[in-house]
Write a structure and sequence with these properties.
Blueprint (H helix, E strand, L loop, with lengths): L3 H6 L3 H8 L3 E2 L1 H14 L16 H13 E2 L9 E5 L6 H15 L6 E6 L2 H17 L8 E3 L4 E4 L4 E7 L12 E5 L8 H7 L9 E6 L8 H13 L8 E5 L11 H7 L9 H12 L2 H10 L9 E2 L3 H6 L13 E8 L6 E8 L5 E10 H10 L4 H6 L4 E3 L6 H14 L1 E8 L5 H9 L4 E4 L3 H16 L3 E2 L4 H9 L1 E4 L5 E3 L9 H18 L12
Parallel strand pairs: 3-9, 3-10, 4-7, 4-8, 8-9, 12-16, 14-15, 14-18, 16-17
Antiparallel strand pairs: 1-2, 5-6, 6-7, 11-19, 12-13, 13-14, 19-20
Helix pairs in contact: 3-4, 5-6, 10-11, 17-19
Length: 536
């Protein structure tokens, strides 16, 4: 006969199946983990920092009570693996830190080994710092838990237990006897190696637990999507796995992603941690940009998307054209971005002139090897030769880029315009040209093509286009490239142009982003060292 607590705890077909196999629900153990949070832990972030960890309804009723309250027929915890997928900014990181501390100090495990895992040590360190702050502020734990921050390690000598960070970029399968693992942002794992290591690391424990928490990603060949698919099948009753805990808070792909009701459906902390007004503002911004739409869907609505997406609205691009008079700009200060994409195709130099309304005027310059231009005009129908006749593209002799011509032309531009700084791709193919231009008197700055370096100028370029403040004079080659460009995003929602994903050449857009990186750095006054090298 099923007791009342177990009957009331049944949520789906998976729970009904588990009951038939002897599983039952313990109110006492469910209450125990909730009391640990609310009586012994203190929040460490935002306006509630220092206050008791008052659980939100979704944390209490959807995660902690079922995860720890359900027991198997042998009086051990039913669940061995928990997959929790929820949008950003819903309080999952602090909940994960609390779970890690509970598994260290509240689960009754002698010699507990609790691991915090992520794609790299910095990501894993987020939960570690949360756990450490909570332990230091806890009336119960502060006298017993010893932090060793230099190794990202918490020790609990009274039970010979510890908690430490383990990352995909530094781990060994040897010697792990995990009682618990908390894996943050599973979608950022580049391979399944760490996952497989941790999955079998607790086989000697009575009731080991792996908690994988993530937002939606884009790679459908990843371990995160594999777990997402299995979790959805468990929720839908397609797979009956008594030991797999699944919780997904998300909008459906066919939902109206602009509807506030859909926002609430995917975000259980909406109105608590962040406001509906914030969500509406982010949604409005996403509606103006295909790239921001992708980011909004992934991080705000937890919808799996593609990595790459067409970036710029051509209507907005055309509306931002303005008038650019090259002669009128002579003698004015500008920033330059140089992109030498290959030795056989287009090279681009963008001169970026700040104007009086907080925007910029662009003067693009392009070069291509003559033989390659003829081939591409004939084979790919790209009008290189027509552009050259119009004076929009300089053809260099031969079938590879003639850097001597580029050096000559750039020096001539330097005589006309006050080029304050010239940015180049740190790994660009014409490294010697950069040295020569520096010897010619230009201040040459190497810019890494990383998210860290390009996120801010990429976002600024998008903002300028949307606000009509990036004036390009309707340059045909720039328009072609703006229509080609695709962006990719990282795990924090940062964007950058992607040459590998874009449909065609985007060198002019990349050069513009490089020039914007210099302009932003000059405005902030702290992004560059005394030698003009970008600090990243």
């Amino acid at each position: 006969m099923i007791d009342t607590a177990t009957r009331q705890a049944i949520r789906n077909e998976a729970d009904e199946h588990a009951v038939k196999n002897g599983c039952w629900f313990s109110e006492e153990r469910a209450d125990h983990v909730c009391r640990f949070f609310e009586e012994h832990l203190r929040l460490n972030k935002g306006k509630w920092a220092g206050e008791p960890f008052k659980l939100m309804d979704w944390q209490r009723n959807d995660i902690l009570r079922p995860l720890f309250g359900w027991q198997d027929a042998h009086d051990s915890r039913r669940f061995r693996l928990a997959f929790i997928e929820i949008p950003k900014k819903n309080g999952k990181s602090q909940m994960c830190a609390g779970i890690a501390l509970y598994m260290l100090a509240g689960d009754g495990e002698q010699g507990a080994e609790v691991y915090l895992a992520a794609a790299d040590r910095n990501q894993a360190g987020i939960i570690y710092r949360g756990a450490t702050s909570m332990a230091k502020a806890s009336p119960l734990l502060r006298d017993y838990v010893i932090p060793r921050d230099y190794t990202k390690h918490l020790a609990l000598p009274s039970t010979d237990s510890f908690l430490r960070v383990l990352s995909a970029d530094s781990y060994s399968a040897e010697g792990l006897d995990a009682s618990a693992c908390v894996i943050d942002e599973l979608h950022t794992q580049k391979s399944r190696d760490l996952w497989d290591c941790l999955k079998y690391s607790g086989t000697a424990r009575r009731q080991p637990l792996i908690v994988a928490v993530t937002t939606a990603g884009w790679d459908r060949n990843s371990i995160a999507y594999e777990m997402h698919t299995r979790a959805q099948q468990v929720i839908d009753g397609i797979i009956l796995d008594d030991s797999f805990f699944a919780h997904i808070a998300a909008a459906a792909e066919d939902d109206d992603w602009t509807d506030p009701k859909v926002h609430a459906k995917a975000n259980p902390a909406l109105g608590t941690i962040f406001s509906a007004a914030d969500m509406i503002r982010d949604c409005r911004e996403a509606q103006e940009s295909p790239a921001r739409e992708n980011v909004f869907k992934r991080y705000r609505l937890n919808i799996w998307t593609e990595q790459d997406v067409r970036w710029l609205s051509m209507d907005k691009w055309d509306a931002s054209a303005g008038e650019v008079d090259a002669a009128a700009l002579e003698g004015q200060t500008c920033f330059a971005g140089l992109d030498l994409a290959t030795t056989t195709d287009l090279s681009a130099l963008i001169l970026l002139f700040p104007d009086d309304d907080g925007g910029y005027k662009l003067l693009p310059h392009f070069w291509a090897p003559e033989e390659n231009a003829r081939l591409r005009s004939r084979r790919d129908r790209v009008p290189y030769l027509a552009w050259a006749k119009q004076g929009l593209l300089t053809l260099t002799p031969g079938d590879v880029t003639d850097y001597a011509t580029l050096r000559r032309d750039i020096n001539e531009l330097g005589d006309k315009y006050e080029i304050r700084e010239l940015g180049i791709d740190r790994l660009f193919q014409g490294a010697q040209l950069g040295v020569e231009l520096q010897n010619d008197g230009f201040r040459v700055t190497a810019v890494a093509m990383s998210f860290m370096s390009l996120a801010a100028p990429s976002a600024e370029l998008e903002r300028l286009v949307l606000s009509g403040k990036l004036h390009h004079g309707a340059h045909p080659i720039m328009r072609w490239m703006a229509a080609n460009v695709t962006v990719e995003t990282d795990s924090s929602g940062n964007i950058r142009p992607s040459k590998s994903k874009s449909t065609e050449r985007i060198d002019g857009v990349t050069s513009t982003v490089i020039a914007l990186a210099l302009a932003i750095g000059a405005e902030e006054g702290s992004a560059y060292d005394d030698h003009g090298v970008l600090v990243i």
